[in-house]
Amino acid sequence: MRNYILFFLVLVGCSSSPYAHRLAVCAIFKNEAPWLREWIAYHRDVLGVTRFYLYNNESTDEYQEVLRPFIEGGLVELFEWDSADPSHLAVGDFMDAPWSGAQLGAYNDCLKKRALGQANWVAMIDIDEFIVPVDGVKAFYKVLSRAEKRGKGTVSLEWRIFGTSEVEELAEGELLTEKLTRRARDDHPANGAVKSIHRPEAVDFCLVHIAGKLKPSFGAKTFKPNVARLNHYWFRTEKACFSKRKQAKEINPEFFKPFNEIEDQTILQYLPLVQL
Question: 134-149, pLDDT tens digit by residue?
Answer without folding.
Answer: 999 999 999 999 999 9
